[in-house]
Amino acid sequence: MESFLPATGFLYWVGVGTVAYLALHISCFLFTAVRVWGLGNESGVGPRLGEWAVVTGSTDGIGKSYAEKLAKCGMKIVLISRSQDKLNQVSSEINSCA
């Protein structure tokens, strides 16, 4: 009776499957990395997602940058922050830029 697997054995095919699996996942990661970090991901931001955006932590750092970018893309922004004074300041800055 002939075996389905050639003389190389079962472990050979386990190795081939493992290498194929890893190659697929590494290539997907590299494709995503080039698309997001190399080409930019601005297609995921904009009015086609809806006309409103909620930004938390919007008075400093990344939250403030997101709020400014979304406002420049034409979206209406809801700013959320712990400090009302900072919130008023950032709100007036965004209104003057947009």
UniProtKB/TrEMBL annotation:
Q: Name one GO molecular function term.
A: estradiol 17-beta-dehydrogenase [NAD(P)+] activity
One Pfam family name is adh_short
The transmembrane residues are 12-34
Which catalysed reactions does the entry list for this protein? Answer: 3-oxooctadecanoyl-CoA + NADPH + H(+) = (3R)-hydroxyoctadecanoyl-CoA + NADP(+); 3-oxo-(7Z,10Z,13Z,16Z,19Z)-docosapentaenoyl-CoA + NADPH + H(+) = (3R)-hydroxy-(7Z,10Z,13Z,16Z,19Z)-docosapentaenoyl-CoA + NADP(+); (7Z,10Z,13Z,16Z)-3-oxodocosatetraenoyl-CoA + NADPH + H(+) = (3R)-hydroxy-(7Z,10Z,13Z,16Z)-docosatetraenoyl-CoA + NADP(+); 3-oxo-(8Z,11Z,14Z)-eicosatrienoyl-CoA + NADPH + H(+) = (3R)-hydroxy-(8Z,11Z,14Z)-eicosatrienoyl-CoA + NADP(+)
One GO BP annotation is: steroid biosynthetic process
Pathway the protein takes part in = Lipid metabolism; fatty acid biosynthesis
Annotated coiled-coil segments of the chain: none
Can the keyword Secreted be found in this entry's annotation?
no
Per its UniProt record, what Gene3D superfamilies does this chain match? Answer: NAD(P)-binding Rossmann-like Domain
Top-level division of the source organism's lineage: Eukaryota
Q: Which UniProt keywords apply?
A: Endoplasmic reticulum, Lipid biosynthesis, Lipid metabolism, Membrane, NADP, Oxidoreductase, Steroid biosynthesis, Transmembrane, Transmembrane helix
| Enzyme Commission identifier(s) | 1.1.1.62
Entry annotated with the keyword DNA repair: no
Its GO CC terms?
A: endoplasmic reticulum
**Which family is this sequence assigned to?**
Belongs to the short-chain dehydrogenases/reductases (SDR) family. 17-beta-HSD 3 subfamily.
Please state what the protein is called. Very-long-chain 3-oxoacyl-CoA reductase
| Lineage, highest ranks first | Eukaryota, Metazoa, Chordata, Craniata, Vertebrata
